[in-house]
Design goal:
Elements: H1 2-28, H2 33-36, H3 39-63, H4 74-99, H5 107-128, H6 131-141, H7 151-154, E1 165-171, E2 174-179, E3 182-187, H8 190-196, E4 202-206, E5 209-212, E6 216-222, E7 225-230, E8 235-237, H9 240-249
Antiparallel strand pairs: 1-2, 1-5, 2-3, 4-5, 6-7, 7-8
Length: 253
């Protein structure tokens, strides 16, 4: 839901930002427009200029070649701003002539106007850059980290048996940890161990057994009996209570 809403918002981000920039320039009144134009004319002028600047930046962004589509580097943003500022300089000069009839710009004046227009275009080009969108999308789509056995459990095992765990078996107040490399007893109840371990790693299949998902070769069923066959060929009983969950998580023969 959040991802879809972000994408819908991102579609209108540039246009909304252009309107906001137009309103801000209307308040600031740069280039003498604060005193030269009536308030209504001033706001209308900068709104039109800002929206035209957005269109010019979007067109330049599409037309300029890119070696890495979808990515916006500082150089790329500056190139979009500079390219779009060229036509926008003439547009701003023309627009000023419309609101102030008789106002004309010489070539030197146009060159002097260009840096100011380019600065506004740089701001617009940065806003329409999808970097922020890509960052959020990446954070949303980034897969969850692989589950690991908790330190308070794994630290109780000998160093050689802290990987490739197959199953846990209850033995009185102890748990026997079965691994590909052997087994070891640790002082812990099976219920406590199962509660500590990430459920993505495995599940309880019997009051005396917990099996690791990666340690089960197949789930075998015969009339009145179900077992989890571990990769070392150990047969672990599956109680009727846990059978449904085991069938969902474990590979079935």
């Amino acid at each position: 839901m959040a991802k879809r809403e972000w994408r819908q918002m991102a579609k209108w981000r540039g246009l909304i930002s252009a309107v906001a920039i137009g309103a801000l320039l209307g308040v600031m009144g740069p280039f003498g427009s604060q005193t030269a134009y009536a308030p209504a004319v001033k706001y209308a002028f900068w709104m039109v200029v800002s929206l035209a600047g957005y269109a010019a930046a979007a067109a330049a962004d599409r037309l300029l070649p890119s070696t890495s589509p979808g990515r916006r580097t500082a150089t790329r943003i500056a190139a979009v701003a500079a390219a779009s500022a060229v036509p926008m300089t003439f547009f701003v000069a023309w627009a000023m002539g419309v609101v102030r009839p008789g106002r004309t710009f010489s070539l030197v004046q146009l060159l002097g106007l260009f840096p100011y227009v380019a600065l506004v275009q740089l701001l617009i080009a940065r806003i329409i850059s999808p970097d922020d969108q890509m960052t959020v999308a990446a954070s949303v789509e980034q897969p969850a980290a692989a589950p690991e056995y908790p330190p308070e459990f794994i630290s109780k095992l000998p160093a050689a048996l802290r990987r490739d765990i197959l199953a846990l078996e209850a033995e009185d107040h102890y748990v026997r940890v079965h691994t590909v490399h052997g087994s070891a007893l640790i002082l812990m109840r099976l219920a406590d161990a199962a509660a500590l371990i990430d459920p993505r790693l495995g599940l309880r299949v019997h009051r005396s057994w917990w099996v690791a998902k990666g340690g089960v070769r197949t789930l075998e069923r015969t009339p009145g009996r179900a077992i989890a066959r571990l990769v070392d060929d150990t047969a672990v009983p599956i109680s009727r209570t846990h059978l449904s969950a085991a069938r969902t998580m474990l590979p079935e023969d």
